[in-house]
Design a protein that fits this description.
Porin; mainly beta; 4-stranded mixed β-sheet; elongated; Glutaredoxin
């Protein structure tokens, strides 16, 4: 082991049937990623220790002090109990394998490599999208279920106009993957096709506001906007399910 190896803590209490499979899960994914983490087992003996260690149940897997479960920011139900995870596949006694994999890769990238190049971002446009019941989709194929279509506007110094959109989605209770497809008609007569990939997340099943982030890819034959072809953009914002409206801010990216 070296000081740069990711620190993995597996918190458990005696008698928990799930902490041995959690150890096996971490070991298997580490082998697959060719990562050698410093795995430490942390026994939680009583309720006082559970509160002190912010123990959400057995097993709890933390990598460099951060819970691999992305849905724990607002939880404070610390207790000496078995833990239940709400994954995309359903309720489980183990965390989602993807959470562990992503957390190990993220931490290994911070400690073992020189680090990613910084990324410069440049504001491209602000967008407001509205759902329109019964609107004809602008695409018939995408990743996931066809959720719906609508219209909207984009405003920016370099891109300004109206849009039509169709959304494909893999639904989830707290997290869903999204594949939006947009057609932007600029004020000066150009047309651009935009395809996105991203995720939407909410903290609780009853929440009606989703936080959204993703990447965008542009395609156009218009000479005035061909500089966008092949460029990567990101957008972030929120979708209000009650108002059936989404607001996003998009940025062009470039590595420094």
């Amino acid at each position: 082991m070296s000081n740069n190896d990711p620190l993995v803590e597996i918190l458990y209490f005696d008698g928990c049937p799930n902490h041995h499979p959690a150890i096996a899960l971490v070991e298997r994914i580490s082998r697959e990623l060719d990562i050698e983490p410093d795995v430490r087992l942390v026994n939680v003996p009583d309720e006082d220790a559970a509160r002190r260690l912010r123990f959400l149940g057995s097993p709890t897997i933390r990598i460099s002090g951060v819970d691999v479960d992305p849905h724990t920011e607002e939880r404070d139900d610390y207790a000496l109990s078995c833990r239940v995870f709400r994954t995309d596949a359903g309720v489980s006694g183990q965390p989602d394998e993807r959470w562990v994999r992503d957390a190990l890769l993220r931490d290994a990238g911070d400690t073992r490599r020189a680090g990613p190049r910084s990324m410069n971002v440049e504001h491209l446009f602000d967008a407001e999208l509205h759902y329109q019941s019964g609107m004809r989709p602008i695409a018939t194929e995408g990743d996931g279920q066809l959720i719906g279509s609508g219209d909207g506007v984009v405003h920016g110094a370099k891109l300004d106009g109206s849009l039509r959109w169709t959304l494909f989605e893999e639904p989830g209770t707290l997290v869903c993957s999204m594949n939006p497809i947009l057609m932007i008609a600029t004020g000066d007569g150009a047309e651009l096709r935009v395809e996105g990939r991203g995720y939407a997340r909410r903290a609780r099943p009853e929440d009606r506001l989703w936080r959204v982030a993703g990447s965008l890819r542009f395609e156009t034959a218009d000479e005035r906007y061909r500089w966008l072809n092949g460029r990567l953009a990101v957008w972030e914002g929120e979708f209000d399910a009650d108002e059936e409206r989404a607001r996003y801010r998009a940025y062009l990216t470039s590595a420094a």
